[in-house]
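Researcher: Watch the backbone:
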Amino acid sequence: MTAPASCDTGLRKFIITSPKPTRPTAWWTRDFRGTRDQVVEVRHWIEDLLPDCGPRADVLLLASELSTNAVVHSRSGEPGGRFSVDVEWTPALVRVIVGDQGSDKAPAVVARSDDAPPLGESGRGLLLVDELANAWGTASRLKHRWVWADIPWQARGGTSLEAPCGMDAAIADITVVRKAFPGISIWWGHLTKAWWAAIPGAANGLIRSTTRDSLIQTLANSYPTATPFGSRHMC
């Protein structure tokens, strides 16, 4: 996995063939450096994606654990390594998918003894995933690996997503942006109340804007060869 755009085809193929509860209502993806400090960035990102509620706390725990495993136990943690995080939201379930650059060992739950810490770098951290997730699993191919975990949303009191002009309109326009600017993810921040774009590989890869139109204009200025919308109106 070198960048979101390069691993996107394999990842989406994996998502389609793995067990899924429903068609995704919303899907976001981001690329992160393979360093420990990026686990905190993953948490901040998801805190902005999803409204504050009990299920979001579970999603944050799972994403943190899977991201840490990617950095500690895969080639993503080597110099220049990277990992990806995808979040799929539906009213019923939220799925977190962490993609890394592979390892000689497959992720596995390791039984702990009474005197061993519950979490650590030996694989015991997946005990948390196994206990907390409604379901989880892995998929891999040469130098690529994905670990996914599901958390019930509505059943645990999760609230609906909201965005200016409505989530349906936001999701539709986000899809258009992905097609126009491959590798770039945009989202409405529930915590920051702002529109964001993440540009993989850039030194300062985040763009913030108060409106979706101004964010799109900034992206269009940065990528002048793209013609994202033509006469399409965005509210």
Remarks:
- Residues 4-156 form a domain with the Heat Shock Protein 90 fold (CATH 3.30.565.10).
- The first strand starts at residue 26 and ends at 33.
